[in-house]
Amino acid sequence: MPVYSVVIPCYNEQEVLSETHKRLTKVMQDMGESYELVYVNDGSKDNTENILNDLQQSDENVRVVHFARNGGHQIAVSAGLDYASGDAIIIIDADLQDPPEVIPEMAKKWKEGYDVVYGKRASRKGESRFKKWSASAYYKVLQKLAGDIFPRDTGDFRLVDKKVADVVRSMPEHARYLRGMFAWAGFKQCPVVFERHERFAGETHYPLKKMLKLAADGIISFSDKPLMLSLLLGAAFSIISAISFLVLLICAIFGARGGLWWIAAFMLMLSGIMLICLGIAGRYIARIYEDVKGRPLYVVAETRGFKEEK
Ligand code: UDP
Ligand code: MG
Q1: Is the CB of 95 inside a 6 Å radius of any atom of ligand 1?
Q2: Burial class (CB in 10 A: 0-12, 13-18, 19+), 140
Q3: Ligand 1 atom with the shortest distance to the CA of 12
Q4: Which listed ligand is nearest to 92 at the C-alpha?
Q5: Which residue puts its alpha carbon closest to atom 17 of ligand 1?
Q6: What strand order describes the sheet that includes 154-161?
Q7: Whose CA is nearest to atom 23 of ligand 1?
Q8: How many angstroms does the Cα of residue 212 sit away from the middle of ligand 1?
Q9: pLDDT per residue over 197-249, tens digit each?
Q10: Are 70 and 11 in contact (CB under 8 A)?
Q11: Is the pTM higher than 0.70?
Q12: If you compute the radius of gyration of the chain from its CA atoms, what whole number of angstroms results?
């Protein structure tokens, strides 16, 4: 088993692959320990398949997984994790936006005893203002909804210990938000700050639509608070309708006729009741969802004192 496995998801990356391979190989060889490069070809339509096969022919450290169809970045990385056999697994994009030269620094932290070393972006060069702004706003919302477990300004570029990879492998959910799943797993985590570069060549495969899907997956997979929304709205409507009834009643005592306002207050009350019922159903759905995700109940880092170590 190699010490390091590097997982590289590739989708239509023919322009960058040979440069990526060169830089990764240089870095990994300088580290002086055994390693494997696990390239996952995520159903590319260009020449990626042949380039990867050639790399595998000429370099014994290369493993290649070809998908039969495009599964998406998070799925490709998940497959890479399944096939990787190293003691430490590094996840890195194929387009050199995550510089391979940061890997030795991550490995150093790993040897110091950290189980997850995530790349924290110092700057977002070459990214539009909109992307920077939306990313920052998104992380704020995510942290509010899902609790404080998610580090900001991190992508999927990271080194994880085998035991953390095993936890994520044991999480069978289909909508995968890996950076969240690694954060959820716990263990000792620490950042390494790096400059995120512009794409070496080619173009992004993350158009706005895919980005929004990933963002929604992050929230929906790690928070059931959106299901609380109708409960809150229902409560608000009910309170407003109660106040309306009170006002109408006082008006009636002083002889004023409420007329249609009574109907309006009644409708408000009905909507409130319906929203509250929906919210209650939502709480049950949250429970079902929690169980359907099939995540482990707890994650043990170590046990001591048992006769047979579990
Ligand atoms: N990728 C993938 N499958 C996809 C889309 C992207 O495996 O369906 C890979 C891609 O080859 C790259 C990484 O995921 O290695 C990140 O994608 P990209 O650079 O297009 O995203 P961005 O950096 O612009 O967010
Ligand atoms: Mg990229």
Answers
A1: yes
A2: exposed
A3: 11
A4: 1
A5: 205
A6: 62-66, 35-41, 4-10, 88-91, 154-161, 116-124, 189-196
A7: 204
A8: 15
A9: 877 877 888 888 888 888 888 888 888 888 888 999 999 999 999 999 999 99
A10: yes
A11: yes
A12: 26
